[in-house]
Amino acid sequence: MVQLERAELQPDEHRRSITTTGVPVGHLVGSYFSVGSCVLYGGRLNVPCAYLDGLLEKQVFRPLVHRSELNARIVGGGFVSPGDVITGVDRSDIDPEIVARNEETPIEPAPEVI
User: Fold this and answer.
1) Residue 114: band (very low, low, confident or very high) from pLDDT cuts 50, 70, 90
2) CA 57, CA 75: separation in Å to the nearest integer?
3) What sign for the dihedral angle of Cα 33, 34, 40, 42?
4) What are the beta bridge partners of residue 41?
5) In angstroms, rounded to a whole number, what is the distance separating the alpha carbons of residues 6 and 96?
6) Residue 56: its pLDDT value, please?
7) SS3 of 66, please?
8) Three-state DSSP class for 17?
9) Residue 112: CB atoms within 10 Å
């Protein structure tokens, strides 16, 4: 068994828009999903910023590699509240014009971890 490093962060320390638990965000890449009344499109996984280690004076960069940060596009605005559930949205349930506009812009590859 492989022991993974853990990063202990408070919600106000990580500088992210939304914090989740128990959600395999890698499964959302290339998918539409909702949080509250917002509809999003999972763009790509991102690499955490090493700058965060110095800012927080904690070693969080390495433990968060491949375990954090999904860049997502907002394709339908709305409200997000604490406790909202992330739910998959079927592509066919979204206005085809919105889908076409969203998908005409390719997803950038994630930056490499140095």
Assistant:
1) low
2) 36
3) negative
4) 32, 73
5) 41
6) 78
7) coil
8) coil
9) 6
Range of the domain at 61: 25-104
- 33 pairs with which residues across the strands? 40, 88
3-state secondary structure of 102: helix
Looking at the domain assignment, is residue 1 inside a domain?
Answer: no
Q: pTM for the whole thing?
A: 0.76
Residue 70, domain member (yes or no) = yes
Query: Tell me, what CATH number does 56's domain have?
Result: 2.40.33.20
How does DSSP classify residue 29? B
pLDDT level of residue 54 (50, 70, 90 thresholds):
confident
In terms of Cα–Cα distance, which of 63, 69, 66 is closest to 18? 69
Q: How many CB atoms lie within 10 A of CB 70?
A: 21
What is the predicted pLDDT for the residue at 2?
45
Q: What's the CA angle centered on 70, arms 72 and 112, to 5 degrees?
A: 120
Is 111 part of a structural domain of the chain? Answer: no
Q: To the nearest whole percent, how much of the chain has pLDDT over 90?
A: 33
- Three-class DSSP category at 65: coil
